Structures are given as structure tokens and as C-alpha cells.
Amino acid sequence: MKSCSPEKSYVRVAPRGGEVNMEAADCSSFTIVHLCLLPVLQMTGRLLWTDGCWNGFLASINFPSRLTRLLPPPPVPGCLTSYTSPLIPGGFRGTTFTNVRFGSSRSSSMQSRLRRTLGITNITGILSSGSSEKNPTTKITFTEARKTIIGDVGSVRRVFDFLETWGLINYSPGPASKLPLKWEEKETKSNTALSQSTEPTGNSVEPTVPKKRLCSGCKTVCSIACFACDKYDLTLCARCYVRGNYRVGVNSTEFRRVEINEEIKADWTEKEILHLLEAIMHYGDDWKRVAEVVGGRSEMECVTRFIKLPFGEQFVGASDSTDVDKKFYQMEDQNNTEFGLQSFGKSFANKRMRLSPLADASNPIAAQAAFLSALVGVEVAEAAASAAVKALAEFSYGAIKESPGSLSSHTRQQEHDATANGDTSLKTLEGSLLDVKSQLDKEEQDLERAIFSIAEVQMKEIQDKISHFEEFESQVEREWQQLQQMKNTLFVDQLTLLFNKTPAPKAGESVQQLVKIE
Amino acid sequence: MKPHAAASTSSNRNTTVKFRIPTSDNLVPIRLDIEIDGQRFRDAFTWNPSDPDSEVVIFAKRTVKDLKLPPAFITQIAQSIQSQLTEFRSLEGQDMYTGEKIVPIKLDLRVNHTLIKDQFLWDLNNFESSPEVFARTFCTDLGVEDPEVGPAIAFAIREQLYEIAIQSVASARETRINKKGRRGAAEQFPARKRREWDVYEPIVDLLSSEEVDALEAREERNART
């Protein structure tokens, strides 16, 4: 898939399961591209870069500098082929790599030379060998790649590393991030806004953190989870990890997730657990008091510990549902989230939810949602989910489509209706699913009908044209015959003239005969 | 290592060029054959000598990790690669003669299930030549499906070119090679004799598994003796 624009050239690869269509910032210098590259690839699909970035890009893959002079900067009218990054957990198909062109003015030998020096064929080779794997979930190792690619192994390795770093091959989504999140620019903005608001509250909630972990990227205290890289001795908070605020050479897979809550909390002694249970028995869901009883533990810690107890679920189910609702909202207020989080929580609860309190922190919103849903228990989460579904269904029939855009736009609209979603509805999740399916069918039929009508109209047009041409043809035929007759009479006239000049009665007769014949 | 353009195009037989593989990319063929504790690792690939030495260790580690070999292999592999590279580099400083030399290159290799037999002439003075391009074209033209054949072909060509280049360095002080080459070039007619056609035709055979096993056993026996 190639597309050219006069000022920018961009790079897109389709992941398995269709294209991811997202926006990215335009970057005019390589450093910005680079810092943005990973998160841009992670959160968006398209990289836009202008000519100046090209050299930087090459430098990042250690392209031998002596050869850069052979390369032209990507010319303005010509562009690189499109690649989107597979970030969204759907895996990678890797079959849409097409020829790279460096502008139409280059001769083909120059093209092939450029391609060779650039190692683009290596990229092709790696990508195509990756796609030809019978089992697409296995990763392609560097050794396999370099065995099948004709070329020196050093450059193959560099290209391979590059592709792996940016997720163009061997992309494996994080284990918990199964939520099909659709990111758009507004959402990402609200993400950052939300995550920043929760961060300081995270600090206040756990004041007694013995081991403070400072993120080396943004220099804030890591609250929920952090990522540690032992190789380079880095610690990053979840946000920085997602944004890729780390050094160039560091591979994202080299980070391991470190859960702060579990790490910081000292083990609950039996006494404490006993106090906790007693308090819960007395106060039910009043976690403030429970925390007081269990001296030295914050509410959050109490709650998480309680959930982790083997019988926690039963207790939650026994209490009054309205109380639970209230607590749910209180919890949220305590967390000091913006009202948008509520709706986000519900809308994402719509999709497959995880009860693990600390889900994959690469998605802070999802982590919050998962955490909250785990806090409040199954029924409340269900209620919230069905309320969200109802709200979604209320908007329009076009709301529940598979296209990412509309779904996300409706989650945005939900922000405004968030406060109204207090009531529960009877529709279960399965019911909503059936609705979705029926609506899909309807739309398919509509589409088919539309296509039929278009085809009919076009056929009519063609038929009209055919009849018109036939008429024309017959007309032309007639004219031709007239012309023939005129030609013949002219011939006859000429003959008579000739014969009359030479007085010969026989000739005259013969001419008359001729005329009769004509 | 920039080729001397004048040397390659002029007909001056006595020009010397700094040693390099006479192809457009100055890549070194590296062959590995390491045996540790009964486990054998054989491999052949091309290496760019201008890569930093750290690359060697990275590559060794990567290979061992990918193929799940015991870690003792890492040092062995790295050493082997390094020694071959130093050997190459030691030759780099010296001169080699180029003269008009068209040499026959023979391919006789077996990669997985594919058997390749071929012979063709290669111009040593063509510093723009590329075994990689040749290998790629070969595979596309003959419809070779196994993707590992291409690199093996390129490697085989490179190895032979490397050998010839070494010879030309070794005999740079002598002028015998030059004269021979000249004579050879003059005698050749542009059209090949009919009986030689079969020799110069590429043969690609797909073997069955049994044949592959039989050949492997024979090769091992030959290697041991």
C-alpha cells in the first residue's frame, strides 16, 4: 500500500486482523521521532517523518555511515512504503511489505543498489519469512532469519534487532492486555491527564511505603507498578515504560514488571489478618474504620489483602448491594479520579474484564478499571457493565459496530453521561452481544442491497449506451450506401461523357445498357 | 577498501590492488565447525569485516541462544570467527594482482533437501559483482523454494573467490599467474563447445529424505577419514 503526500512520508504495516488506523504527530527532527517512536508505534499506527529524519533513522540501525552518502534522502514526491506497527494485541502478519522506492527518477540499478545497501531486502526477507511461518505465534529467531537471508549476518542482525524493537516482528502483546483498546488522540490525552491525577493520590494513599522507587524517566515515585531493567539498572514507572522514555538501546522486553504493592507491603502477620477480619465483620464495607482497626495499614492495603484472602468473595457478596454501590463511588472519589474514569471503567468493563487487582500496568486506565472492579466485586462490576451497555445502545444503532472509531467516539460521549449511569438494567452482557450481531446482519443486508441497486443502475446505463451505438451504426451504414450509389452514378456519368465524345452508336447502346444495369 | 576503478577497467595487466574480495561488498566468508562434548555445530555465513569486534560476541551469544546450544559454544564460536577475521585482516594490507582473470566457479552443495550443481565463469576484475545478487537470481530463476539455499550459494561463491584472492596475493610477487591468466583469456572463444554445455548447466535436484540421510552418512564418513 503506497501513498504519497507532498510533504510527509510515512510508514505503516498492517497487523493481523486488519489495519490499525491512528494518527501520530509529525516529527521534524529525528530526536523527536525517536523519543516518540516507540510510544507512537505503541499507541498509534502511523509514523510521519520528513526527510531530515532519514539519516537519524539510519543511524539508529547502525547503518554504516560511509554508505549513507549513497542514499538519497527520501524525495518529497516519492515515499517509503507504508508500515503500521502492530501494537494492538492482535499479532503481526507481516505480509504487506512492498517494494521500497526511492523516487521515480532513480534508475533500476541504482534502486537495487540502494536497496541492497540499505538492507531493505533483508527486511523483506525477515518479514516474509516471519509471515510464512506455519504457526504464526512462534517467534522467528535471528538465526533462522539470517540463514534464509542472503547477505552478511552483521547487517541482518541489525535489521532484525530494529524490527524486533519496534515490534514489526516477533511482536507479542503483554500477557494481561487482552482488552481491545482503541486509542485516539483525545483518549490518549485524557489518559495522561487521568494517570497524572492518580499518581499523586497513589502517593498519598500509601504514605508508609518503606522502599520508594523513583522512576528514572520522569523522576516521580512509582506507585502501582514499575518496570525494572536489570541490564542497565533502570527503573521506570508504568507511564514511562509505555511512553518509551528510556534509552535508545534498551529493549522493551528487558524490563520486568515489579509490583509495588506487593513489594512494599510487608507480609501481613496473622494478628493483622485477624484484626482485619474482625473489623470487616463489624464494619462491613467501611474501610476507613477497618483500616483504623488494623493499625498501620491503609484502606487500599486492607482491601487488597482482603480480596486475596481465599474467602473474600463470599463476604463481598453477602453485603447489601446498595451499600456496595455507594462504596464503589466513594472509593472512586477517594482515588480522586476525574469523572471520566467512571465511564471509562464501565466502558472498558464492557469488554473482557480481569479480576486481578493489578492488571497489566502498561495500560493505566485498564489497570484502574480492573483494580476497581476487583475491589467492588463481581456483581457491581456486572451492574456497571450492563449500565454501560445500555448507555451505548441508547445512542444509535450505529454505535455498536466493530469499527474502532465509532466505539471510541462513544466512549468519549459517555464521559458526559457518566453520572447518569447509576441505575442498573436487566440486559445481560449476552443480550447485548446478540443485539450487536443482529445489527451487524442488518447492516450487511443493507450493504448488499445497496450494491445490487448500484449494479442495476450501471447495467442500465450500459444498455442505453449499447442501443445508442447500434442506432448510430445503422445510420452510418445508410450513409455509406448512399455514398456508394452516388459513386456509381458518377461513374456512369463519366462513361457517358466519354462515349459521347467519340460518336459511335454501338458504344452509345452499350452505355445505355450499362446504365440500365446500374 | 575502495576498488581502484582504473585498475578494473584498464587493460593494464600489472596493476595491483589492495587485497579485498573482488565483489562489490567486501564480505568475508566464515565457516564454523565446532564440536563440544559430542555436539556438533556447523555453519557457514558471510561477515562484514568492518563490523566492530563486539559484534562477534553478540552474534555468538545470539546464535547459541537461538539454537539452544550449551554456553560453552559461545566462546568457541567467537574465537573461531575472530581467528578467521584476523586472518582476513592480515591479508588486507597486502597487494594482489588482478590481471584479466576469468575463473570458473563450481557449485556443488547440498542444503537440506536441495542439491545444487553448477559451474560458471566469474570475472575477478569485476569489482561490482555480487554473489548475493547471483544467488538471488539463481533461486528465483530455478524456482528454488528452500530459502536456505540462496545464502549457501552466495557463501560458496564467496569462499571460492576468497581462495582465489588469497592465491593471487600469495603469488603477487611472482608473475606466473599473470601470464597464465592472460593466455587463458586470449584462447577462449565466445561460444562454448557443445560437449561443455552440460557442464555449465545448473542442476537443481530435490532429494527425498532417505537420499538425504544416505548422503549425510557418506559425508560424515568422508569427514572422519
Topology:
The complex is a heterodimer of chains A (518) and B (225).
Chain A: E1 9-11, E2 26-27, H1 30-43, E3 47-49, H2 53-60, H3 65-68, H4 108-118, H5 120-131, H6 142-148, H7 153-165, H8 185-205, E4 225-229, E5 234-237, H9 238-243, E6 255-259, H10 260-264, H11 270-283, H12 287-293, H13 299-308, H14 312-318, H15 321-335, H16 339-350, H17 364-376, H18 378-395, H19 404-417, H20 429-501, H21 505-517
Helix pairs in contact in A: 1-2, 5-7, 11-12, 12-13, 16-17, 16-18, 16-19, 18-19, 20-21
Chain B: H1 5-9, E1 16-18, E2 28-36, E3 39-47, H2 54-67, H3 72-92, E4 95-97, E5 102-111, E6 114-123, H4 131-142, H5 149-170, H6 176-187, E7 203-206, H7 209-224
Antiparallel strand pairs in B: 1-4, 2-3, 5-6, 6-7
Structure summarized in a few sentences:
By secondary structure, chain A is mainly α. Among the domains of chain A are: 109-166; 211-264; 270-308, Orthogonal Bundle (Arc Repressor Mutant, subunit A), CATH 1.10.10; 364-395.
Features of the shown structure:
heterodimer, A: mainly alpha, Arc Repressor Mutant, subunit A, 6 strands, B: 225 residues, three-stranded antiparallel beta sheet, two-stranded antiparallel ribbon, disordered N terminus
Overview of this structure, please?
The complex is a heterodimer of chains A (518) and B (225). Chain A is built from 21 helices and six strands. In chain A, the strands form two sheets. Chain A has a three-stranded mixed sheet with strand order 1-3-2. Chain A has a three-stranded antiparallel sheet with strand order 5-4-6. In chain A, helix 1 links the parallel strand 2 (26-27) and strand 3 (47-49). Chain A has helices at residues 30-43, 53-60, 65-68, 108-118, 120-131, 142-148, 153-165, 185-205, 238-243, 260-264, 270-283, 287-293, 299-308, 312-318, 321-335, 339-350, 364-376, 378-395, 404-417, 429-501, 505-517, and strands at 9-11, 26-27, 47-49, 225-229, 234-237, 255-259. Chain B has seven helices and seven strands. Chain B is of the alpha+beta class. Chain B is globular, with a radius of gyration of 19 Å. Chains A and B meet through helix 5, helix 6 and helix 7 of A and strand 3, helix 2, helix 4 and helix 5 of B.
